[in-house]
Every structure is written in structure tokens, then in C-alpha cells.
Specification:
Residues 41-53 have a biased composition (Acidic residues). With 64 residues, the protein is mainly alpha-helical. It is built from 2 helices and no strands.
Length: 64
């Protein structure tokens, strides 16, 4: 029987906690900078925007 890797699980929990804390800090900064309406959103738009930044996009303007 395989032995559970508790250190891996702990690291995953720590990373999730850190990510949640950073997200709260970003939302707080957005509210402080005058984006009060943004703070009421569910945050799904921000996650999609983060994913868009990480994935390379093909160059625009295919006309030669």
C-alpha cells in the first residue's frame, strides 16, 4: 500500500491559502484605488484575466 505524502498535501494547502490571501489583497487595493464596483464581483473575471495573461496569444493583424 502506498504511503500518504503529507508534506505534499500541506504544501498544496499553504499555496491555496497564500493565493487566497493575495486575491484578498488585490481586491482591497482595487477598492482603495476607487474601484468600489469591482469589489462586488465574484472574482471570476479576474481569474479569466490572469489566465489570459499566462497563455500566449497569436499575433493580431494577419493582413500582409
Amino acid at each position: 500500500m502506498a504511503k500518504p505524502n503529507y508534506s505534499y498535501e500541506k504544501r498544496q494547502r499553504e499555496l491555496a491559502k497564500k493565493q487566497k490571501k493575495e486575491e484578498k489583497a488585490r481586491e482591497k487595493a482595487a477598492r482603495k484605488s476607487g474601484g468600489g464596483a469591482e469589489g462586488t464581483e465574484s472574482g471570476e473575471g479576474e481569474a479569466a484575466a490572469d489566465d489570459a495573461e499566462l497563455t500566449p496569444q497569436p499575433p493580431q493583424g494577419g493582413a500582409q
